[in-house]
């Protein structure tokens, strides 16, 4: 594939592939080791510069909770998405439309395994995860059930050097590929409480 392809694999000798994972929202050294989670799509095993965070971009602060009920929103269990689709969907939505949320953890995890398992139980799938010297990174997504359901894309980091806190940068895409104008926060406000509940024991 071309060298400038968003999923370009840098390559390294040995059994483990090496790839750069972007750092966000704070500037951190680039990582080397990435764990693949797209078993159904081997070509997407490693994701380099997936979200294009080489140059930090401002994102909006989390909006106040929506006043309408979001309990009716259901999420697809075991959803699948290719790395190319993830990259395309994320890049199509402006960083200005991103929503930032924070989830407290009980402890700083030793790996991302327990977090990924807990999120999988509520319909949040892992595209890829990686461990850097100072933090963990996860690329997550969830699909709303129904023909007109939206796609929620999440880029997350957990610092190893501060309080147990998971920072989520979230983008929402409508089924037609557009960014929601009015209901993005509603979708996020439906999903975040589920994430918080799933991670209470992690």
TrEMBL record:
What residue ranges carry the coiled-coil annotation? none
Source species, domain of life: Eukaryota
Pfam (any one): B2-adapt-app_C
Question: Which InterPro entries does the annotation name?
Answer: B-adaptin_app_sub_C, TBP_dom_sf
| Signal peptide boundaries | none
Q: Which GO terms describe its biological process?
A: intracellular protein transport; vesicle-mediated transport
Which residue ranges does the record assign to the Beta-adaptin appendage C-terminal subdomain domain? 79-176
Write out the GO cellular component annotations: clathrin adaptor complex
Descriptive protein name: Beta-adaptin appendage C-terminal subdomain domain-containing protein
Which organism does this sequence originate in?
Answer: Fragilariopsis cylindrus CCMP1102
């Amino acid at each position: 594939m071309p060298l400038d392809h968003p999923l370009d694999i840098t390559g390294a000798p040995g059994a483990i592939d090496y790839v750069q994972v972007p750092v966000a929202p704070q500037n951190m050294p680039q990582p080397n080791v990435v764990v693949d989670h797209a078993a159904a799509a081997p070509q997407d095993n490693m994701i380099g510069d997936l979200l294009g965070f080489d140059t930090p971009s401002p994102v909006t602060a989390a909006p106040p909770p929506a006043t309408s009920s979001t309990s009716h929103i259901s999420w697809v269990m075991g959803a699948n998405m290719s790395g190319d689709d993830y990259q395309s969907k994320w890049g199509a939505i402006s960083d200005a439309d991103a929503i930032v949320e924070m989830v407290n953890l009980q402890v700083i995890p030793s790996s991302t395994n327990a977090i990924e398992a807990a999120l999988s139980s509520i319909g949040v799938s892992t595209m890829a995860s990686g461990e850097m010297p100072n933090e963990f990174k996860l690329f997550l997504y969830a699909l709303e059930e129904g023909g007109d359901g939206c796609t929620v894309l999440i880029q997350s980091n957990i610092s190893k050097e501060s309080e147990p806190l998971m920072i989520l940068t979230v983008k929402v895409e409508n089924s037609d590929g557009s960014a929601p104008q009015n209901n993005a926060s509603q979708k996020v406000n439906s999903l975040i409480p589920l994430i918080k509940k799933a991670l209470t024991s992690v």
